[in-house]
Amino acid sequence: MLKDTIAAISTPLGEGGISVIRVSGDDSIPLVDRVFHSKIRLPDAATHTVHYGHIVEPGTTEKLEEVLVTVMKNPRSFTMEDVVEVSCHGGIVSVKKVLDLLLLQGIRLAEPGEFTKRAFLNGRIDLTQAEAVIDLIRAKSDRAFKVALKQVEGKLSKEIKLLRHQLVELMAHVEVNIDYPEHDVEEMTNVLIRDKCTLVKTEIERLLHTAQQGKILREGIETAIVGRPNVGKSSLLNELAQENRAIVTDIPGTTRDVIEEFVNVGGIPLKLLDTAGIRETTDIVERIGVERSKSALAEADLILLVLNSNEELQMDELVMMKQLAEKQTIVILNKIDLPRRIDLDQVRAYFSDERIVELSLLENRGVDSLEKAISSIFFEGKLESADLTYVSNVRHISLLKQALKSLQDALDANADYVPIDMIQIDIRAAWEQLGEIIGDSVGESLIDQIFTQFCLGK
Length: 458
Ligand code: GDP
Ligand code: ZN
Prior knowledge:
Layout: E1 6-9, E2 19-24, H1 28-33, E3 36-37, E4 49-56, E5 63-72, E6 83-88, H2 91-104, E7 108-109, H3 114-121, H4 127-138, H5 142-152, H6 155-179, H7 183-209, H8 211-219, E8 221-226, H9 233-245, H10 256-261, E9 262-265, E10 268-272, H11 275-280, H12 291-299, E11 302-308, H13 315-324, E12 329-334, H14 344-348, E13 356-358, H15 367-378, H16 394-415, H17 420-437, H18 444-451
Parallel strand pairs: 1-7, 8-10, 8-11, 11-12, 12-13
Antiparallel strand pairs: 1-2, 2-6, 3-4, 4-5, 5-6, 9-10
Helix pairs in contact: 4-5, 6-7, 6-17, 7-16, 16-17
The structure holds guanosine-5'-diphosphate and zinc ion.
């Protein structure tokens, strides 16, 4: 059943130069060949070759579309099945016509994520890699993209596999001990359990430590921009949005509204809260008593408080600073191209120097220091050199935590001299939980759930 032949448009719908239809399955080559007119018959084509020709409805001579067809024979393809890719250049209408014609030949329209699911089920990629494909499609910044890419390459899986290997070795030792329970062997086993479990536990803790940063890269830092009217909030928003436009470009599946909700500051995605509200309501400070704006601030991971350095601080701004001092706030002193009238000491009373950024949005000066300030809050300033294996997937985090707990149980039991075959159960549980991350022991329903998150054609 699984090997029936499926097809979908795998490039984003829209204008664009070329659209690619991907076909995968046992009969993909002969079925595409039915509608493909060329000097060569596709079943005779060598693997990984490209062929020029036309799509023609069987029984007619009308050329529907001029195409390039790529043949990739199993197992050297993304799905490890026979794959044919048809590149059309005639815009969306003719691509859809070609797809419809293929579907008439007995090819089935692929479900969302089905190509990737097949790659997983056929052993081409593991589950973390498949999930990373979702992240790639949805990546909201350069950096999130790179993190996802590493995961596609299998970096996280490799680390998980190493940890599991440690546990397998340990279990083997323990098993021997259960079979030959002599006193001095048992003591050695106790030491071994303690050392190995501690080692694996430390490593899992390190992975979990990256989770917060991973989440930020994946979902963005929820950010609110606040300040009195005319301080430059909209200018800031425009400046940030402008930089952003260059970044999210050719990644398939990213939609307009997603792009507009997110801005990038040096590769760190900021998710702007209530952007429309900021655009229209320039007086959030004045509405400080209003519950709604309060809760918007409570929700935020990061608050950008914009002040006009050309003016003295107003009473409501002082109130605001007092309230925000406890939160993750960056104070932006805008308009430094104008003479300074603000009393910096009043700001310093609430915020350390790293949290104060001076810039001019008019002259486009100092915006990079905002980037540094954000990076120092969320990445302890180490973002550039940081290892790119971030754990960012909620499912992975939850399983890592479970494995951590199992290992702790094993360590506790070991310290209490609980019989070793009981401890073995905990170690085994940790091994299985880690296995679930890479898809070693996951059920059908979870697999379906993961793959339906894809968009069509992936
Ligand atoms: P908002 O009301 O807080 O959104 O402020 P705007 O972004 O609309 O800016 C209010 C005014 O200040 C506009 O006329 C901007 O051109 C001006 N402005 C913004 N940034 C600067 C700056 O850095 N220097 C100067 N001199 N003017 C600026
Ligand atoms: Zn897509």
